[in-house]
Automatic annotation (TrEMBL):
It is found in: Cell junction, Adherens junction; Cytoplasm, Cytoskeleton, Microtubule organizing center, Centrosome; Cytoplasmic vesicle membrane. It comes from Brachypodius melanocephalos. GO terms for biological process: microtubule-based movement. Transmembrane segments: none annotated. Belongs to the TRAFAC class myosin-kinesin ATPase superfamily. Kinesin family. Residues 709-718 have a biased composition (Polar residues). This is Kinesin-like protein. Residues 341-664 form the Kinesin motor domain. Residues 719-728 have a biased composition (Basic residues). GO terms for molecular function: ATP binding; microtubule binding; microtubule motor activity.
């Protein structure tokens, strides 16, 4: 065990010294020499330690024969052998790296030698070419000087005798010879110039090779640096791992062999030295990450501060934008009120199980997060935007919808005519919005509850009478839903008082005084309304339902009388016969529904284009809504749409129609008020006797009922009418 511990300590010293020598060295040879010297020193220390340990083993051989830690000693010896093998592997790797460095050094020397040879050859070639060039230039200069003398002689000898002429011929022949020599020298000069060009090309090639060698040298140098860095990282990692293993194993040895610690006191200074060296190296390695982390922290702080400033600016801009949006909406609503525009609200129903599954049931309608008056429809891969006065998403409740329309409802008490009608394809949720369910009522019942609440609030100064009528337009026939004979067809006529208002002679009215009365009237009217099952809607309304609420008031102090009318219309849904699967009577009903809705579209077009003639009489529906669409009523259209992908065509048509309706200007609305006397008490008693005070027990209407049979209809109607008569 002492040998194992000493071997581990020596290995740690060897690794740390090797790392220190590598970090301090500048080239591979110095590194190798330092490693060799360190290895020799470590071998000598190991031999000395082995001698001391053998001496200790001889001293402790007798008491250790029966020692219970023999097995543990064998295990530690195995660990020592394993560590020795790892050390051998590390040495082998070091030898391989040394060989690779030596090879690259030899290669670099060879490249430098070749470069020097190339430069020397180039210098010799340039020197030789320069000498030849100088010789050629001297020869050319000498030849050029000789012909000038000959010409001069020729000029001077032309006037001499025949003897001189003979000498001239000889001179000319010599001149010709010299010219041939000059031509030959020129040819030689040309060849030398060509050789000079070749030499220049060779020089360029040599320079390219030099640049290539330099690039290769730089690349080899970079590879060497990378490999040395990788070696350094591997050595650091090996040192850390070896040190951690040594610490764990030393701790185990100290716990199990307390008696041996006294024999290892001489080794503790060496261990402290190694630990100190390791800690100093570790601190040196940590300096750079700490500096980098500090820089990153400061940069992150600056970036976070900038992001926070941008976020605060964005929040302030968003707040101002929303405030301006609300102000714009308020001004727009006031402008709509002054112009008398038809206000248009949109409501999107949620996806239901009736829509099915798959791509056809995907949601095709999205909303603007900042503007609650805009919605987007994805139709055939294109997004179409629509702007209404208000848009309600699928999660909007009945209470939220009614909060937007209650201002119109309360103006009915002040003597204004108000009309609220729901428009949309079949199954889009029109009846749910207008009537709702017993647990979650719609606009109709909430409007009457609000009227009663307002009437009770003004009971100290005003007397009010609220009457309710219900009718439906089925197959272009107007029927009374509260009358004794619901199949009787009624007609729409002008009031005989010359006011130009329309009324329905024979239409039954019930006076209501409480919510219970409302529920009874709604049930009485709902059991007579026609609903049937189609492929698009299980409980499809097959008629247009109209709830007429008349509020008459008398100011007891001034005698001022007001009359306000609230028309709540649930239109039958438009449908495509091919999709709904209507046949027989259902087909005839669908044709009449589509015809009346088409007539409504014609009326809206005529009002929007300000035509002189508006075709109100083309349909019973438009004729009955003439008062609400001719400029003497506050009108609101609630367009209901389906978000399902398969219904995008119908949704597109409904939203386009809503935008056209929104652009219609009806003009300012007048209040129905006049000074006069209130009807006598006898008149009221007669009215109560004829109409009844309490219409009976109630169940809120909804689309959850199918059309009753004729026998059931007559029996239930008679029962409810008896209750109405007895409850008064």
């Amino acid at each position: 065990q002492v040998e194992t511990l000493k071997a581990k300590v020596l290995e740690q010293a060897q690794e740390i010294t090797r790392l220190r020598s590598e970090l301090g060295g500048t080239d591979a040879e110095k590194h190798r020499d330092l490693l060799a010297a360190e290895n020799e020193r470590l071998r000598q220390e190991m031999k000395a330690c082995e001698g001391e340990l053998r001496e200790l083993q001889r001293q402790q051989q007798a008491p250790c024969r029966d020692c219970p830690h023999l097995q543990e000693k064998a295990g530690l010896q195995e660990q020592l052998s394993q560590l020795q093998r790892e050390a051998e592997e590390t040495r082998a790797k070091l030898v391989e790296l040394d060989l690779e460095v030596q090879q690259k050094t030899n290669r670099l020397a060879e490249v430098e030698l070749r470069l020097k040879d190339s430069l020397a050859e180039r210098a010799e070639e340039e020197e030789r070419l320069s000498r030849r060039l100088r010789d050629s230039q001297e020869t050319i200069a000498s030849l050029k000087s000789q012909p000038q003398q000959i010409k001069y002689i020729i000029k001077t000898v032309e006037v001499e005798s025949a003897k001189a002429k003979q000498a001239l011929c000889e001179t000319q022949s010599r001149n010709q010879y010299l010219q041939e020599q000059v031509g030959m020298q020129k040819q030689v000069l040309k060849e030398m110039e060509q050789q000079l060009q070749k030499s220049q090309k060779t020089e360029a090639q040599l320079r390219a090779q030099i640049m290539m060698y330099e690039a290769e040298l730089e690349r080899a140098h970079g590879q060497m640096l990378e490999e040395m860095q990788a070696m350094e990282e591997e050595k650091n990692h090996a040192i850390e791992e070896a040190f951690s293993r040594a610490q764990v194993e030393m701790k185990a040895v100290h716990e199990n062999l307390a008696g041996v610690r006294t024999n290892l006191l001489t080794l503790q200074p060496a261990l402290r030295t190694l630990t100190h060296d390791y800690n100093s190296l570790k601190r040196q390695v940590r300096d750079f990450p700490l500096l980098l982390q500090e820089t990153l922290r400061s940069a992150r702080a600056e970036i976070s501060q900038a992001i926070e400033e941008v976020h605060s600016t964005n929040r302030e801009l968003l707040r101002k934008y929303r405030r301006e949006l609300q102000l714009r909406k308020k001004c727009h609503n006031e402008l709509v009120r002054l112009k008398g525009n038809i206000r248009v609200f949109g409501r999107v129903r949620p996806i239901t199980k009736e829509d099915g599954e798959g791509p056809e049931a995907a949601n095709a309608v999205t909303f603007d997060a900042d503007d609650d008056a805009v919605l987007y429809l994805l139709h055939k891969g294109k997004q179409v935007s629509f702007e209404l006065d208000k848009v309600f998403p699928p999660q909007a409740s009945q209470e939220e919808v009614f909060q937007e329309v209650q201002a119109l409802v309360t103006s009915c008490i002040d003597g204004y005519n108000v009309c609220i009608f729901a428009y949309g394809q079949t199954g889009a949720g029109k009846t749910y919005t207008m009537e709702g369910t017993a647990a979650n009522p719609g606009i109709n019942q909430r409007a009457l509850q609000l009227l009663f609440s307002e009437v009770r609030g003004k009971a100290a100064d005003w007397d009010y009478a609220i009457t309710v009528s219900a009718a439906e337009i089925y197959n272009e026939a107007l029927r009374d839903l509260l009358g004794k004979e619901p199949q009787e067809k009624l007609e729409i006529k002008l009031c005989p008082d010359g006011s130009g208002q329309l009324y329905v002679p024979g239409l039954t009215e019930f006076r209501v005084q409480s919510v219970e009365d409302i529920n009874k009237v709604f049930e009485f009217g709902h059991i007579k309304r026609v609903t049937e099952c189609t492929n698009l809607n299980e409980h499809s309304s097959r008629s247009h339902a109209l709830l007429i609420v008349t509020v008459r008031g008398l100011d007891r102090s001034t005698g001022l009388r007001t009359t306000g009318k609230l028309n709540l219309v649930d239109l039958a849904g438009s449908e495509r016969v091919g999709r709904s699967g209507a046949e027989g009577s259902r087909l005839r009903e669908a044709q009449h529904i589509n015809k009346s809705l088409s007539a409504l579209g014609d009326v809206i077009y005529a009002l929007r284009s300000r035509q002189g003639h508006v075709p109100f009489r083309n349909s019973k529906l438009t004729y009955l809504l003439q008062d609400s669409l001719s400029g003497d009523s506050k009108t609101l259209m609630m367009v209901q749409v389906s978000p399902a992908e398969k219904n995008t065509s119908e949704t597109l048509c409904s939203l386009k129609f809503a935008e056209r309706v929104r652009s219609v200007e009806l003009g300012p609305v007048s209040r129905k008020a006049e000074l006069g006397s209130w009807p006598s008490q006898e008149h009221l008693e007669v009215l109560k006797t004829l109409l009844g005070d309490s219409p009976g027990s109630a169940a809120h209407p909804g689309r959850g009922h199918a059309s009753p049979s004729p026998g059931q209809l007559s029996s239930r109607s008679a029962s409810i009418r008896r209750k109405l008569q007895t409850s008064g």
